[in-house]
Design a protein that fits this description.
The chain is about 70% helix and about 0% strand. The protein is mainly alpha-helical and about 290 residues long.
């Protein structure tokens, strides 16, 4: 008769996770739409931190004689009312939006994970109190909540990022709590406890590593949500002050010229839309793999 020890039960999930990871990577490589989405997201990230690799124009260089030129070989996205290259301004506007998105996701992840872990792991009355607070936040539309917060904090990229981050905290808290509750009841967690592991060790070594999947998918999905929210607040005038180029600000600047110079709003809008759709496709694909 074969004897299975507690350490065998505890180590089994780790080896299983490695096999699942290899299988998932193989499946992802075979999805061309996923690879295209990843390449576009990587392009946006690289261009945000090294825009000079993709343009030779300056974001604030004005050429009045070239004002309102349509898209062409010299100016990929055309020029604005001051003759500035719109493609360059979109690329140089990426750092503000990308950094604001990363800050918003960091705030949401830290606060949401903390609330979800405490609520799901300890349960009881503390769980009930935290979840009622989360329910109240979920009852308020995220953009409306962010708009209220940024109105109180003031204008600028940093207040916008903080406001958007707080607005997406409830989703992280709910998802983390659900995963912690699920993993906490699995056999290898009970085996680890039976082997004498403390609850702290069980939490750090077994519950958290096996709860990251849905939370990672939500992070990618909420990156698109955060980009849209930040661009929307910038469009409304709560973002960085001119002449700084944010995506929402660029779209807003061209709305008065939609009939005569459609590219001023449409092309920056398409740039953002393709990024958000790419992030949504990546999150959907990852979600299918984690089921």
């Amino acid at each position: 008769m074969t004897t299975v020890t507690v350490p065998d039960l505890v180590l089994a999930p780790a080896s299983g996770r490695r096999a699942e990871l290899r299988s998932a990577l193989v499946q992802l490589v075979r999805k061309p739409a996923f690879l295209i989405a990843v390449v576009y997201v990587l392009f946006v990230i690289i261009s945000a931190f090294a825009p000079k690799l993709f343009t030779s124009w300056g974001p604030y260089d004005t050429y009045p004689e070239q004002a309102m030129q349509a898209p062409g070989a010299e100016h990929l996205f055309g020029t604005d009312v001051y003759g500035r290259d719109l493609w360059t301004r979109v690329l140089y506007g990426s750092p503000l939006t990308i950094k604001a998105t990363l800050l918003a996701l960091t705030i949401a992840a830290v606060a949401g994970l903390s609330i979800g872990i405490v609520s799901g792991f300890f349960g009881g009355r503390l769980d009930a109190i935290l979840m009622r607070i989360v329910d109240v936040l979920l009852a308020i539309p995220g953009l409306l909540l962010a708009l209220s917060i940024v109105t109180a904090l003031g204008y600028g990229t940093l207040p916008v990022a903080i406001a958007v981050g707080i607005g997406i905290v409830p989703g992280f808290a709910r998802t983390t709590r659900a995963e912690v509750l699920r993993v906490k009841t699995l056999p290898y967690v009970e085996a680890a406890r039976a082997g004498g592991a403390s609850w702290t060790r069980v939490l750090l070594r077994h519950i958290l590593p096996n709860s990251w999947g849905p939370v990672a998918v939500l992070t990618v999905l909420d990156a698109g949500v955060a980009i849209l929210a930040i661009a929307s607040l910038s469009f409304l005038g709560f973002g960085a002050a001119p002449p700084a180029a944010e995506w929402g600000t660029l779209i807003s600047d061209g709305r008065n010229y939609l009939v005569t110079s459609w590219w001023l709003s449409l092309l920056p809008g398409l740039f953002v839309a393709v990024l958000v759709l790419s992030l949504n496709h990546i999150s959907k694909t990852l979600q299918e793999l984690t089921r």
